[in-house]
Amino acid sequence: MWTNQEHFQPTTVLPPAGLWIVPVQKESSSWTTKTKHTTMRTSVVVLVCLGILCISACVLAQIKLGSTLNQCFSNEDCTSQQTCMNLKCKDPCLEACNGNTVCQVRNHVPFCACKPGFSGDPFSGCDQRRVTLEPQCETNDDCPQYRACINRKCEDPCYDVCSGNTTTCHVRNHIPYCTCRKGFSGDPSIACKPQNPPGSWPPYPGARKRFQLELIKTNWFGAFAHCLNHGGRLATVANYEENERVKEAIRKTGLKASFWGSGTDYALGNHWTWVSTGLPFTFTDWSNNQPDNWQNLPGGEHCLEFWEETQYRWNDRNCLEQQYSVCEYYDEVEQK
């Protein structure tokens, strides 16, 4: 006999032994078998029959008779990129955002934003508008040291400062500095012109030698490097006229000090040469009894100085002494 008399009449013929599933719909206070081709909530009666004894269990299920099953009852029944709408898993972005927007779904929820260059309410629509940026700076101190505050923006100050593609620009503490590229010389703010092949001195034909005093005390090696790093060489003297030009330049400083030239006998013993050119002396202006290579100092005396004690005639001096120096540069002569 049936164990649930509310659901089935006693005259119902018992099914044979086995497992039976009977879908039914509850309407009002009675239960009837579902026969319509629509979707609704139903109870499923599970019958386990053995002989004349049947045990029933009621299971709540969603069955769509004569059609396909519904996809969802809640968002949890869909992927995280979908939302349960009208019992279907759908892309919520299709209806959420309006024009000129982008949409992303996160955990079933659509998020709308205006496209770059647009502003407004993304749910009602975004318009193309000009965005006013906040100023980056008021002074150079608001920018990194390799940038300068230009029109309230931190910009590269090298732009359009140096002349032509033969120059290089460097920024130090917000200020641009121009130099001629390797193989070129001249005024980088005007124009840098090709030099003679590397190592040539003078750097270009027809150039005129110019002497410049460097009022930084270094040893002889430091003086040579200083002149070289500034596009020149430690001074050489080829004749009487050049020697007098050096002396006159030193006198005009009013300093009571000696200055380095590029002469040395390090390489060839007692044979003095100009290290800036590699040429031997063809003119000399040694002070009396010089050079004497005085041995009382460690390392002896192997470098030439314009000696203040003898009105800037030449003397050999220990190369590690700290003194001023004379550099030489060449200025290109304009062709007429």
UniProtKB/TrEMBL annotation:
CDD domains: CLECT. The chain crosses the membrane at residues 44-63. Residues 204-328 form the C-type lectin domain. It comes from the Eukaryota. Gene3D superfamilies: Mannose-Binding Protein A, subunit A (3.10.100.10). Keywords: Disulfide bond, Membrane, Transmembrane, Transmembrane helix. The keyword Membrane applies. This is C-type lectin domain-containing protein. The lineage of its organism: Eukaryota, Metazoa, Ecdysozoa, Arthropoda, Hexapoda.
